[in-house]
Amino acid sequence: MATRSAVLAIVNPLSGTTSIQQKKLLQDAFVRRADALGFAPEVIQTTHPGHATELATDAVARGFNRVLAIGGDGTINETAQALRRSATSLGIVPIGSGNGLARHLGIPLNPMQAIERALSGRPVVIDSAEINEHPFFCTAGMGFEAYVAHEFAKQPVRGLPTYVRTAFRAFWTYKPQRFLLDGQKKELFSLTFANAGQFGNNAWMAPTANIADGRLEQCELRPFPAQAAGMLAWRLFNKTLNQSAYWRGHSITKASVQANGPLLIHVDGEPVTLSTDQVEVRILPGSLLVLL
Known about the structure:
About 30% of the residues lie in helices and about 35% in strands.
């Protein structure tokens, strides 16, 4: 009798707005479906930051072919970090606030449908990237988007309405920043490095980004008058921001950024405070297998 292939589901019990009871039902459904498809399923819940990376690293060492990340963009990022340049494929079950990578890849936002896709799908090669030592798979950046990510992380309630309120308040206090970008002095409202096209919630910063072309989209949004904010927000959610006169994009493989002091950045939407004013960004072509 053939040995059943092991599949691990890493679950973040704190992700998104799904209740703990709903996550338990989701775990049970995963186990039943994986078992029916001939897998040997395991489920482990994360208990601390970085735990998903530890669990996925162990799964790679144990020879797992598939590891599912059931959580938000942060959980998916942590899991994917450990799977880069391995033969283990990532299954994405999005239950977070933004679900940027899942949306870009066309993965169902219905958790049960996403589990089915992860268990029955085939591995597809995509790129990943790094900003200093921090891996990212969707977007990373600085300026306004990083400022909002840091403010959003302080809120007791997650979800799109909270994010919109946080961004609206932040807009009136945020000041554009000066950067030295590949040797050129620039004042920017935000600076995004996009592997995938959107932040999440269908907010498309890089509408033409290709997640498997071996390149990043460097998106610069220069300062704009307050009366232009509404139209820019409309363009962001209608996949036409690249048609604005305030937006400029470049296709790159690496970039160097320097600021006037320690940088606030975000990595796949998660806030990070760097101890340095220098940032190096690079693409890692074809470095991750995703189940689609």
